Amino acid sequence: MKKDIKLAEKKIKIPEKLEEHVGSVHMKTFFIGIGAAFVLIAGIAGIAKLTSSDTEAAVEDQPTEVIVGPQESLPGNYHAVFLTNGQVYFGRVTSRDSFEVVLENIYYLQSDKQMIAQGLDNQKELKLIKLGNELHGPEDMMYINRDQVLFIEPLKEDSKVVKAIKDYAIK
Length: 171
Hints:
This protein is α+β, with helices and mostly antiparallel strands. The protein folds into 2 domains: about 60 residues; about 90 residues, SH3 type barrels (Roll), CATH 2.30.30.100. It is about 35% helix and about 30% strand. It is built from 3 helices and 8 strands. Strands 3, 4, 5, 6, 7 and 8 form a 6-stranded antiparallel β-sheet that branches. A two-stranded antiparallel ribbon has the order 1-2. β4 and β5 form a beta hairpin.
């Protein structure tokens, strides 16, 4: 039995067996495509698993920044503690953990307001102020939220700040 296909007003006769063969080729191609897609997905999942295992292992091998429990003070006698709001405090870091940094014997820099008003702000006109004489009368100890600390630097014994602190202590 033959079927007629009409193309551009011409009739072409296609044998029935050829039509069955064409259909089976499409089915084979379909199943091969499905199989290839499955293998590809399984391969990607396997690579992702290996990569995540390698990453987890690498993370476990690296030291972490998380500090659990209080620690002794940092090396050096005096430190500069830089905060996220731009303020810098100087003093002794007496303890730190994953939640807070404790600073004692605290000083901070203050500019001369007259110099700022005149637009003559100069680094030479900065004053080192001892914490505790402010209107609200704070203790000479500060508990700083760890999230607000950018970094902490140990100060050299011959730095200008440390010399000023020692001079203040002598007075």
